[in-house]
Amino acid sequence: MEKKLQAQIAIITGASSGIGAGVAKSLAIAGATVIINHPVAATKDAAEAVLTEIKTTGGNGITYQCDVSKEEEVIKMFADIVAQFGTVDILINNAGLQRDSPFEKMTLEQWNFVLGVNLTGQFLCAREAIKEFLRRGVIAERSKAAGKIICMSSVHEVIPWAGHANYAASKGGIMLLMKSIAQEFAPKKIRINSICPGAIQTPINRSAWDTPQALASLLTLIPYQRIGQPEDIGNTAVWLASDDSDYITGASIFVDGGMTLYPGFSTNG
Ligand code: NAD
Q1: From ligand 1's centre to the CA of 139, what distance in Å?
Q2: 3-class secondary-structure state, position 252
């Protein structure tokens, strides 16, 4: 099989579980050396388990602890990875979380926590990645682009979500962060896009799929009639990171089984 990301260095934030772990596995199969980021000491074992699975299938990588909402830690992570591997080619800005609440009861701590990881974390990592892409420029044998950033957004960058105002605001923010920097750095041959997952079966939304009743209710929102898997996102990430998508920048790619097709209107509204 052709390895479309051969010898490229990819940092995947929040990769010790769920979508991040799935994307790390897919990128590794495509030949990338993967940096499996995780936030705290307690997530190290899970990150190591992802790395072990990747190595079992012939992949290569390391784990790296860094809380993406902390500026000093993000700067250090990029400096350490460049020192160890020479450069970074791909950033998957994936780390994200929810702290749900009815809006009138939402605390400033809940608001700041979600915005801090989901939006500020993507800003900090993208800024450090872009500094490195600008320093290195295009190396034709690696890729036609000087670097690729993939932001993990959500269908909730366009679908409002009652009870989740902080999360939806963070994803709406990612959309214009991504498009603004895609516009700014396209002339430097840096491509920046978002993947907008619908419902993917991971720990973040366990209550939406872990009983038959919950899953049946969820499927009423998904025209394609199945819940997504991390591999669905991993396959898209490999394509978006590879030269196969070289003319694509500033795009939000919805990987959602049709969730954004207004399924409520499928029976005449
Ligand atoms: P998940 O809970 O399995 O993964 C989130 C990861 O982020 C975890 O590994 C966690 O350790 C990590 N993380 C949290 N705070 C961090 C920090 N400060 N620094 C570094 N890492 C941190 O959930 P998931 O479903 O895999 O979510 C991954 C991304 O996909 C998130 O951005 C989420 O918003 C997005 N998303 C998920 C779905 C879905 O249906 N699962 C849908 C749309 C978008």
Answers
A1: 31
A2: strand
Tell me the CA–centroid distance for residue 268 and ligand 1, in Å.
35
**Domain annotation covers residue 265:** no
Domain ranges, residue 160 = 9-257
Pocket test of ligand 1: the residue of 204, 231, 254 to mutate, having most ligand atoms within 8 Å of its CB, is: 204
Ligand 1 proximity of 221 Cβ (cutoff 6 Å): no
Please report which confidence band the pLDDT of residue 75 belongs to, taking 50, 70 and 90 as the band edges: very high
Task: Indicate if ligand 1 lies below 6 Å from the C-beta of 170.
Answer: no
CA proximity to 28, closest of 144, 85, 52: 52
**Residue 128 domain-assigned?**
yes
Which region, left, alpha or beta, applies to residue 222 given φ > 0 means left and ψ of -120 to 50 means alpha? Answer: beta
Question: Is 97's C-beta closer than 6 angstroms to any atom of ligand 1?
Answer: yes
Catalytic residues: 167
pLDDT of residue 181: 99
Identify whether 3 is part of a domain: no
Enter the tokens of residue 123: 């800003």
30: DSSP letter: T
Q: Are 93 and 152 in contact (CB under 8 A)?
A: yes
132-156 confidence digits (pLDDT tens): 999 999 999 999 999 999 999 999 9
Q: With beta carbons less than 8 A apart as the criterion, state whether 266 and 259 touch.
A: no
* Burial (Cβ within 10 Å: 0-12, 13-18, ≥19) of residue 36: buried
Residue 121 in domain: yes
- AA letter at 134: L
Joined tokens for residue 66: 């860094």
Give the Cα-Cα-Cα angle 39, 45, 49 (nearest 5 degrees): 110
- The domain that contains 81 carries what CATH number? 3.40.50.720
Number of domains in the chain: 1
